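Write out a sequence, fold above all:
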Amino acid sequence: MAAFARSAPCWVDVQLPDLEAGKRFYGELFGWTFRTGEGPYADAFSDGKLVAALAAKQDGRMPTAWGIYFATDDIAASVARIREAGGQVITEPVRAGRAGVLAQAADPGGAVFGLWQAGDREGFQKQNEPGSFCWTEVHTRRKDRVDPFYEKVFGFQGTDLEASGPDAARTGPDDSPPVGFRMWSPAGTEPGPDTAVGGRSVITDAFPAELPSYFLSYFAVEDCNRTAGNAVRLGGRISAPPFDIPYGRMAVLQDDQGAVFAVLQPPVSENGAE
């Protein structure tokens, strides 16, 4: 049995101008260790478990950004559904050695994501724990086209929330109220927060018109405030200062090369457990 259900987020990587600088930044921020492969990339490990990869950009025109990949057991069929649903295939399926097969695409709003059909590498070996991936969401201005796209391509079942989800508490720069948030649950599950694997947020007019649609991926941390402070100390920036949401305490950060990501400190229950 595959380690990841079909359409579940299974991998993240970041494209950086300076790979060694990225290793220093994330190594100190998250405590990651690295193993360099034959190509211009480095696998990242937390407690000895695979959590992400850092890659040196081969083309300066590529964005400095974190990318998210969704699991598929038939990448050709997934690519066909993307086209049928109005998306754009950026990179046709290509084999990554014995590790698996990948493709890249964009939804109707322009947000880029990846597909991963596992070979020897399933994806994350650790998630939802400090130092590892815990959530992703697409930010878009075209929810009326994007929502049915992901439901058709991945079979997601949506739950609309007015003030929930890891991004719902965020406001625009003018303190405008949060907009509706949609959580995605895999096909065959009961839709809701307990089964959600990702979500959709809306980019409102409070943000600059030139801001493109994008995926924001989250990493779990033990202390959100401390992590945000450490990011600045390491040369990064805080895009959204730490604040509380129903699912803990979060912040949106940039690394020292401009790649944006979020961190989430899970809430502590009354018995002290997260």
Summary: Residues 90 and 148 are 20 Å apart (CA to CA). Helices lie at 19-30, 75-84, 143-154, 224-233. Residues 163-178 have pLDDT under 50 and may be disordered. The chain is about 15% helix and 40% strand.
